[in-house]
Design goal:
Length: about 550
């Protein structure tokens, strides 16, 4: 396409155009002509969220730049609201990268600069199918406004509310990061008020697990913020250990009742990375440590009393059937030692485990998640057996692999590719180790320690989403569509053949081998089209 007056030396002082779905808009100068398209073209089922980008640029400074949309309208005059927001830049490594979806729809634009604008439609469940049209109007303090067309196509099908999605999403939460950023007392009413929109955003993506810390620093201080225990271990002056569950109860109740995450309570861990448990010694008033030695009698002596008490407590709260003990990336010998103690003192507790690769213990784990490179080892007969037993089987990415991933510098299509990989391989969902483990200031840069940029979080303080998180969410919606179509095939002979073809085509696109390549964007586009055609054929 050709944009009138395109280029940094154009006569027009203010220019705007729609940008292709997965492009990152550069910080300075005009976006490349190859990035632009004639309209923001969105599509989706009823109940789905659809988002796109606009680039705004100028050779002159543009104070009070703003973008707004009165909504999109169909032929019958029905209007669907459209949200616009400025996309901010942060630093990933030594690069400025567009990622933060702000809450504001205005800003100042420097001369020669460019500003991406996020365009988002949440399609109402009651929307009439068909085509809706509108425009985003971009204006500044001086000069003529510029408009960019928005075209939305609504399909007749409906996605259920996220609380009813089938995907088993497990992005680990970090309450302390919210308290530190906003400088509020942890577990105070102010803390929970600030966490609510952040965690509700997660629930609205299909989150099923509540991340809980049984002990202090289960992962040996791998994040900028401390991971304090939600259960306080106190050794009384009489030498008896007791446990204070007040913060644990507040957190779990909040996530279940106010946020709506109700699938499972994942408690970390009986096998911490530093193999120690911190406790308060009342006799001295100081914190001390217990050494953990799995397969040693001392291990059972420490965990047996706790599990007995903890089991009684969660049962009294009605949470016994949802409580899981997290044992991530631990050797089989340690996992077996923990399971033996669990079976003796709290047999109802399930085990959730992120593992580098499946092992002999995999069959015993209720919720297992191998790293993507080894995800193929839990498919086939093993996966079918686990499904029969009501167990969850997902996969995960973290600092590894380099691709596909959700780093700040990752191509955006990779985030959408990941849930499609789960759907294509009949896995139950996706795990990532950090949802909001912010660094000192994520608005300045997204690096922390030795982790790749953006590895520690997918959203930003102040309940701001990211391009990465929205593309991940797009993939989760495609996951739901695949599951809905499979359910339709079980009841409709016409759909059965179409869905069988869909499954065969998706299985060829989303493999471990292809995950290491460079065709993620192409794969996602193909998958979208396969799902769209299957939907139409199977109606």
């Amino acid at each position: 396409m050709e944009i009138k007056g395109y280029g940094p030396d154009a006569a027009l002082s203010l220019q705007a155009a729609a940008v292709k779905d997965y492009d990152r808009i550069p910080y300075n100068g005009a976006p490349g002509q190859e990035m632009l398209q004639d309209a923001v073209r969105l599509s989706g089922w009823r109940g789905e969220r659809a988002g796109g980008q606009i680039a705004v640029w100028s050779s002159q400074a543009q104070p009070q730049l703003s973008a707004s949309c009165a909504g999109v309208k169909n032929a019958a005059g029905q209007i669907i609201p459209v949200r616009t927001a400025m996309i901010r830049y942060t630093r990933g490594g030594n690069r400025l990268i567009s990622d933060i979806i702000g809450s504001e729809n205005s800003c100042d634009l420097q001369a020669g600069g460019v500003r991406p604008v996020w365009v988002e439609v949440n399609i109402p469940p009651s929307a009439k199918p068909g085509v809706y049209k509108g425009k985003v109007v971009v204006s500044a303090e001086s000069g003529s406004p510029v408009s960019v067309p928005v075209i939305l196509e609504v399909a007749p099908e409906s996605l259920p509310a996220p609380a009813h999605w089938q995907v088993h999403l497990d992005l680990w939460q970090h309450p302390q990061a919210v308290a530190r950023w906003h400088d509020v007392e942890p577990w105070s009413p102010e803390h929970f008020a600030l966490m609510k929109p952040v965690m509700k955003r997660l629930a609205d993506a299909g989150q099923k697990a509540i991340t809980c810390s049984l002990i202090d620093e289960a992962w040996n201080a791998q994040t900028y913020d401390w991971f304090p225990p939600m259960i306080e271990w106190v050794k009384g002056k009489n030498g008896t250990m007791r446990w204070n569950y007040a913060n644990f109860d507040k957190w779990v109740s909040f996530m279940m009742n106010e946020v709506g995450v109700k699938g499972q309570i994942s408690c970390y861990t009986m096998i911490p990375w530093n193999m120690k448990i911190r406790y308060l010694d009342e006799a001295t008033g100081k914190y001390k440590f217990l050494d953990l030695k799995p397969n040693d009698p001392s291990y059972e002596a420490i965990w047996g009393p706790f599990l007995t008490d903890f089991r009684k407590h969660v049962k009294s709260k009605g949470w016994l059937g949802k409580t899981c003990i997290g044992l991530d990336e631990r050797p089989d010998a340690m996992v077996r030692a923990a399971k033996n103690v669990l079976d003796k003192y709290a047999p109802e507790f399930k085990i959730v485990s992120a593992v580098n690769r499946p092992t002999a213990m995999t069959r015993d784990v209720y919720d297992v998640s191998p790293v993507i490179d080894h995800a193929g080892t839990v498919t086939g007969d093993l996966l079918a057996q686990r499904k029969k037993e009501g167990k969850k089987t997902t996969f995960y990415v973290c600092v590894h692999p380099k691709k596909p991933n959700t780093f700040t510098i990752s191509p955006l299509a990779e985030a959408e590719w990941l849930p499609l990989f789960a759907a294509a391989n009949h896995l139950d969902g996706f795990l990532r180790w950090a949802y909001n483990s912010w660094n000192r200031n994520p608005f300045e840069k997204t690096d922390f320690g030795n982790w790749p940029a953006g590895d520690c979080y997918l959203v930003y303080p102040g309940n701001l989403s990211s391009l990465r998180f929205e593309k991940l969410r797009d993939g989760l919606e495609e996951f739901e569509k695949v599951n809905i179509l499979r359910a339709r095939a079980a009841k409709n002979p016409k759909a059965k053949a179409a869905v069988a073809r869909m499954d065969e085509e998706l299985s060829k696109l989303f493999t471990v081998e292809k995950s290491r390549g460079d065709s993620h964007e192409e794969d996602v586009w193909k998958a979208r089209e396969i799902i769209r055609k299957t939907t139409e054929i199977s109606r």
